[in-house]
Amino acid sequence: MINQINAESKLVTLIARIEKTILSTGNNGSNYLILNLVDMSGRVEARLWNSTEKDVEELKTGSIIKIEAATNVYRQQLQLKVNSYEVINEEEFEKHSINIEMFSISAPINVDSNFEKLVEFINSLENEVYKKITLEIIKSYESEFKTFPAAVSIHHNVVGGLFWHSYSLLMGAKSIKEVYKYANVDWELVYCGAVLHDIGKVIEMAGKNAAEYTDEGRLLGHISIGNTFVSNKAIELNLQDNRDVLKLQHVILSSHGKNEYGSPVEPSLIEGVIISSLDALDARIYKINDELEKVEKGAWTGRILSEDGRSYLNHYNKKETK
Amino acid sequence: MINQINAESKLVTLIARIEKTILSTGNNGSNYLILNLVDMSGRVEARLWNSTEKDVEELKTGSIIKIEAATNVYRQQLQLKVNSYEVINEEEFEKHSINIEMFSISAPINVDSNFEKLVEFINSLENEVYKKITLEIIKSYESEFKTFPAAVSIHHNVVGGLFWHSYSLLMGAKSIKEVYKYANVDWELVYCGAVLHDIGKVIEMAGKNAAEYTDEGRLLGHISIGNTFVSNKAIELNLQDNRDVLKLQHVILSSHGKNEYGSPVEPSLIEGVIISSLDALDARIYKINDELEKVEKGAWTGRILSEDGRSYLNHYNKKETK
Amino acid sequence: MINQINAESKLVTLIARIEKTILSTGNNGSNYLILNLVDMSGRVEARLWNSTEKDVEELKTGSIIKIEAATNVYRQQLQLKVNSYEVINEEEFEKHSINIEMFSISAPINVDSNFEKLVEFINSLENEVYKKITLEIIKSYESEFKTFPAAVSIHHNVVGGLFWHSYSLLMGAKSIKEVYKYANVDWELVYCGAVLHDIGKVIEMAGKNAAEYTDEGRLLGHISIGNTFVSNKAIELNLQDNRDVLKLQHVILSSHGKNEYGSPVEPSLIEGVIISSLDALDARIYKINDELEKVEKGAWTGRILSEDGRSYLNHYNKKETK
Amino acid sequence: MINQINAESKLVTLIARIEKTILSTGNNGSNYLILNLVDMSGRVEARLWNSTEKDVEELKTGSIIKIEAATNVYRQQLQLKVNSYEVINEEEFEKHSINIEMFSISAPINVDSNFEKLVEFINSLENEVYKKITLEIIKSYESEFKTFPAAVSIHHNVVGGLFWHSYSLLMGAKSIKEVYKYANVDWELVYCGAVLHDIGKVIEMAGKNAAEYTDEGRLLGHISIGNTFVSNKAIELNLQDNRDVLKLQHVILSSHGKNEYGSPVEPSLIEGVIISSLDALDARIYKINDELEKVEKGAWTGRILSEDGRSYLNHYNKKETK
Amino acid sequence: MINQINAESKLVTLIARIEKTILSTGNNGSNYLILNLVDMSGRVEARLWNSTEKDVEELKTGSIIKIEAATNVYRQQLQLKVNSYEVINEEEFEKHSINIEMFSISAPINVDSNFEKLVEFINSLENEVYKKITLEIIKSYESEFKTFPAAVSIHHNVVGGLFWHSYSLLMGAKSIKEVYKYANVDWELVYCGAVLHDIGKVIEMAGKNAAEYTDEGRLLGHISIGNTFVSNKAIELNLQDNRDVLKLQHVILSSHGKNEYGSPVEPSLIEGVIISSLDALDARIYKINDELEKVEKGAWTGRILSEDGRSYLNHYNKKETK
Amino acid sequence: MINQINAESKLVTLIARIEKTILSTGNNGSNYLILNLVDMSGRVEARLWNSTEKDVEELKTGSIIKIEAATNVYRQQLQLKVNSYEVINEEEFEKHSINIEMFSISAPINVDSNFEKLVEFINSLENEVYKKITLEIIKSYESEFKTFPAAVSIHHNVVGGLFWHSYSLLMGAKSIKEVYKYANVDWELVYCGAVLHDIGKVIEMAGKNAAEYTDEGRLLGHISIGNTFVSNKAIELNLQDNRDVLKLQHVILSSHGKNEYGSPVEPSLIEGVIISSLDALDARIYKINDELEKVEKGAWTGRILSEDGRSYLNHYNKKETK
């Protein structure tokens, strides 16, 4: 498996899924393929030099391949140089004792049981408007909500990442409520907003293993998609004149916190401030931690684009101290 | 009428509508009222010094009043000092030979006939999706679309301003089509986008004489309201899976041109670039011209906020040269 | 008491402390005084019109005064117009059954018992470096840390505000730890950073009732003052070569999150990201809630400078729903 | 011809002009040449791998070459791999039945006849100052004005591009005049400003086939060059004290709209707002359309730098629908 | 004289020039005049309450007036309240033993003798192009160059301020030459650029006592005016093809250092970097020092707009220590 | 030596120190090494193609190597292609008649004698607080202060660069004092601030030949390190309550001029303005001149990152004209 490969493993045999294929031309004029490989244990980049048209034909995004490859370390990142490969079609999966589930990284939480907890919790709320709209929407898109990633690369880009991220926000909101009991906060709005704030991603992302956005996603954005979900559902439920619907829409629309980050309106409900802050914090912790795990203790991560290009120091390893 | 008052008219009698009342405390501790007055010929600011509670009670936003006032020039702007006033109730309108229509500035175009031209033109388009959605929406909100202003103060803040602004965009788009015939532009999308880009203002603005935004407008913004109009209408018309709907939504969502100006997505259709450019140009010409008309030839306008605080030189008077 | 005054109370008698006196010249050429008054129940602005030199002499920042005043509502904020006043000297406190403690707003938590809890908690940590430095510093400045406000006006500007804010961060950090147990976070660094991040304010603020910053505070800033506290304390404790000291310094230095907000270094430890995020969220919730409490349900707050001038809608009252 | 080459044409023979030669070192240590080729039908990039010093000598910017090359598709852009080449000197042109005009892309309008129309139109204006200065300047630089490109790469980078762009602005301005007849706009100033706004490019660009800027252009910029053209011409015509000259200078100086885009003054005449808006729109439509034409319907363009790195969706093909 | 007035001088008699008159309306509805007064010793603001039309007529910008006034301190700035006034016409100057020179603040250097030194120094340079153009231009505008201020309010707003500022730059440049002798700097270009960089202000400013900019200044800006001075002079001297002319133009055009500060080109000669840095430093020192002189030692200045609103601490008095 | 190599020297033999080794993977899948070489005469980049693990082992940062290499010009920069190499260990230095000092570029000033002049000058100051703290600190770190570079790459990245830069600021400050004798400037504070403003770099930089920053430097930054130096030294000298100490701290903390450039406080002493301006100017002159020296007269430098990516024209060569 991918996470077992390291700089010392000179030659490896690996079965993996191609998350994305990029065709490149080398400076000597010959083509080569960059293969972003993934299995349930992690991701690794492989390169096939001097690729032929047949290679391009076979090594498509989504294919399951078995490769013989040499390891290489480039800018402190492990790379593979493909010596030979074989595409494994679906009918051959059994022969290789594999199934498609083995080639995706999954969120490290039990999505199914936590989804039930989430539904149960929302069901326990008192505000019937927030409750109904939230439950109806997540049930309409239950499968996508439970399996889609939260982003292509910025954060939570794993199967179930969208749910994981949304659920983390809900948990975070519940946990800080006690600290802010002095304030006039409609916590039920915070909770439902946390669950729904990224729901438009079920349309924006191309699928649970998506490495790309859909055209619809690029033209509308998940914020506006989520907003129309609420608007349409309110009409269905004959709630279009209820002002609590506006509040749900507002916390989705304002969830990026600022116009320049893509929110058409900036928060003007205190609940929107809480949701957008927890959203940003959750994404940042995921991403920084993900990069920290790629380097050794004492080393600095590469430049993280979403952190304005900053590097972070890996100074602490939770496993050591437990 | 307001546009007949000038610095020379020492004492005036005027019937006008209060567009907005602002209660202020003077530096001597007594209260006074700032009355933004309007009639069909223009706007003027009046002040009632040493106001009583009864004055506050009577001089409400929306009231029609008859005043005796002295003129005053402050920072090159005419002001009125109210000496005495009388509130005119609706039942007394006839007695004063007035009607409510006389107390609003209207767009200087024939809205009704131009609305018909607009409908006819949209009806002549070939794209059935753009056409149906556009016509259905403007008909649903025909009255508001024809009477609401385009903004509280930035631009086209007159009765019919929303229509005037939208129609100007349509006319502008039609006029430049010939120049850009070399380009791959879906002009029917430009036309329908021009008509619909600000349609959410029928909810965002508080009314045809609105000097304020609605709560719904502040929480959602006209861009997102317009987007849900299209989304909801597409469902009604069973067009929700038609990709042309997405394009209409996109040109509304991207009509402010940049995230930082409140568009949740930036243009990724060339038609969105044309609409957002014409939108900005139309609003700027209106506003700068409006300020130029307040000062004499050879003078500079006050600082215009929407123009980054710049002043403009009144160097040319179209009437002179005609 | 101040919080009992409302628009209906026409004439009031009040004993209060002058938090700040501002001398102004009215547009009629006479002077007047703006008095920011405070007692334990709240704040209110009073004005004394046509003030004399003697008034200026007597109505100094810090004085306790007894006034007869008329209420006035200006831009939806209650104001008082002082008709007569009397300064109450310390020797007369007993006569009026008052003491100085009655004229400050205090943080709505029990600072003493919570300070003990905080010390106990820090004492329970395993990292001796973080623990010792944190405890030594807060003990050196225990009195200031427990009584100073967190800011002049932006947030937590009450007696004990600095402690309240720091303690809220600690509570928030403890509460979200469970959500982020997957990540490589040195929580003890987060906890001590939360406690120390604003400790420099014990020098930066002019006192527990401070309405101003000290010269030292303006020249150095609380971030750099806090950083030298840790550096100096480490030398005292002979820990200057321990790398954990650097980490504590880093999370203080980076606590504003970005250079442009006054942090000389931006976070490069994940713990700095958590602290700066919780810091911003805590200050924002305090400030927005404070403004929400000044307006009625259904109304919008004034423009909040620290929120980029945005207004917030008061849509929910926690007391109603409890 | 270049526009006839596509991914299917495996081996091609082509005569083209080298618009720019870039020497590069491959990662294997050998040099190679990137040749930007152009003929009247379009542009294509070719690469000569393992180039020798002799190759570098011969394959200079500006040379006409005949190549045998293999096609290659790289990041959805067609590339050529040069197998062999031959330089064609001017004396051999006849032999190959070619002439130098065949190796430049030209603006898709008849420059000569449109130039005459432009002159005629300007001649018909009433303002003698605008008219004389404009005509004198464009006649002084007639050849450059009619043949130079409008930019190296951002927009209208074809022979005659400067004229095409300036003429498009004039046409655009004339077409929208009707929409803005209500406003105090000196349209003759708009027209002459449209013609002259980029005139400094006749010095800034290195020539009609320029792929580079002159030193003079880099040190002064076309805006300041154009401004001195007007100033010098006014002295020649003894008009230096006429205030209309200032207005012409102003609309040139302010034509980039904002200081940050290189205008030393921002518009303070309404005509400057119209010119700078039409200028930006014209450049954007050209560039986006140019990129749209490089990709197939349904595909997204590459990231366009001048559009803040955005991609655009090719969703409409004007040829299909005509 | 103005600098002899202080808070203790209760009633004063003063003859001064009105630098600027601003008509205002008080909150009690009556008008008042703000008079910016100046004499050779300094500036002070005076107010005439309850002004009549006759007052407005008489108290014009530029008038010399004799007033009886009461002192007042407002926001730590001294103000005068005019009790009575008398306008002194030119024919009465002798009677009052005054002349117009007594009512302007002058640069604290001997402009005439330093101007001669400057001319002599430029005459001693070796580069004939820089030398001739510089000398010809400053001689053409000798009177304005020697008397005009450098700005309306930002810096060096005194008679001779333009010369003082330009001469300071020249002195600064000469003084640091020794430090940078290692670098490839064309010091003669720096010197001439220092002298000419603001020369366009002789047109931009309305006069030596100017409190306003000319229309020409506002439409073109001093940078572009100075640039055409050089261009026109080069033509006169038949130097239009000499490349050193371009360099002089470049250092004028780039003297604001960045596009966003109004330079149409940013420095691409090292000499432009030196000039723009010394320019900014000189203006800042003047302005900050000017504000420091208004407050007492130990106090902070008001917010200085050109310093991003920062206040400065007056901590050192050069007179004390000399 | 490196500065004797040029494009004409086809094959060269060179002994140099590796300032930094970067391992790269070529597009053909083989590794290569980029070697930044340095000797006392300059820097040059060399590449070893198809590197083996043994090469990587031997060609470490810091090694002294003897190479046979071919010259190559890439983007107008000279490069070397290593044909063969030999590592020279310290014990072999004598055999090759070399010593370690020969492989560093040094500041082109006599550091030792100028350091003595600096100490003497500071000793001559009157302010005992500034004097003692400055002298004590630079003596504590004398060796580092005299040998460390001022930055890794931005400016003065040579042995002794930190001293050179600090000394240049001192010289610059002394030279302009005469120009600003009218202003209230505490020049002794300027002088000591100039000397100390970057002193934290003795910790931030990894050594005199440093091509990297220390972890401590990255976590704290040289500004905060320098600030604690002063704070700690003041305690040692029992000066912690002296307000002049605050001023020294302030000019260090504010030396980057703006928050966004990493200063935790912006200047609020006029001396801080002078120091930060001279600091920026000195760094810019060094860097631009350094780039100008890499290209021929008449050519443009590459894009300079610290100059917002601008190129500069080499138009003047000081050697020619001397």
If you had to describe this structure to a student in words, what would you say it looks like?
The structure is a homohexamer of 322-residue chains. Chain A has two domains: 2-103, Beta Barrel (OB fold (Dihydrolipoamide Acetyltransferase, E2P)); 111-288, Hypothetical protein af1432, CATH 1.10.3210. Chain A has 322 residues and is an alpha+beta fold. In chain A, α6 crosses α10 (243-253) and α9 packs antiparallel against α10. Chain A has a five-stranded mixed β-barrel. Chain A has helices at 53-58, 111-123, 128-140, 142-147, 161-176, 187-196, 201-204, 215-220, 222-236, 243-253, 270-292, 318-321; strands at 11-25, 31-39, 42-48, 64-74, 77-87. In chain A, β2 and β3 form a beta hairpin. At the B-D interface, α5 and α11 of B face α5 and α10 of D.
Domain count of chain A, please report it: 2
List how many beta strands of chain A DSSP finds: 5
Q: Beta fraction of the residues of chain A?
A: 15-25%
Name given to the CATH architecture of the largest domain in chain A: Orthogonal Bundle
Pfam families (chains A, B, C, D, E, F): HD, tRNA_anti-codon
Protein name (chains A, B, C, D, E, F): 3'-5' exoribonuclease YhaM
GO molecular function (chains A, B, C, D, E, F): hydrolase activity; nucleic acid binding
Keywords (chains A, B, C, D, E, F): Hydrolase
In short:
Six copies of one chain form a homohexamer. Chain A is of the alpha+beta class and 322 residues long.
